[in-house]
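Hi U.,

Before I forget, here's the chain from the pilot set. I'm dumping it here mostly so it's searchable later in email.
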Amino acid sequence: MKEPVREQVAIRYELPDATLPSSHPARVLWRVLETLDVSEFERGVKGVEGKAGRPTHSPRMLLCLWLYGISRGVGSAREIARRVRDDRGFGWIAGDVSVSHDVLRDFRIEQGEALNQLMTDILGALLQRGLVSLERVAIDGTRVRASASAPSFRREASLLECREQARLHVKAVLASAHESARARAARKPQRAASRRVSSRPLGRSRSCGKWAVKSRAPRRRMRTRG
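Structure:
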């Protein structure tokens, strides 16, 4: 009888480009970006001319990561960076390039409204053609498919209506990520205070010179009977 063996080391060869089907949304978004001139988004990611430094990241790759993330309801740079390591769609976009959340965050801040407009235009056009679906994360953590993804909507909706749905989707996903970041920031001082209290040293005992808990119980005086 052959039992499964999972402790043995195995070497496998895999072509990263073959990990996703041709119709996968990540591939669709990448193909669209390949047809566009994204040179204006190189602002903020270019290195300083004449100075040695780290290689810059491809603006097309960063654009695609944000586009794919927003379409899946992910608007956090930290979460996108995590999914590059754990999710096949995000990992395929990045290839073998390591992307930190700082790089994604700085790119998002630098491009600002231009990035929002590009995401709205691309997602709206693809939504109208039925090539992508939009998802967002509800308050309870469950995934909710946007109403504009329904086939009945796509049949009746114009490109303008799909762009408006995409605009609202982009705005909602980014707002949700911002609120989550604010909530995490608000919890940091509380955690820091809790760590300080737990690491505070105990009082020093006068009798033996060792750390011990000081007793605050009131002392009772011994009374002698006359």
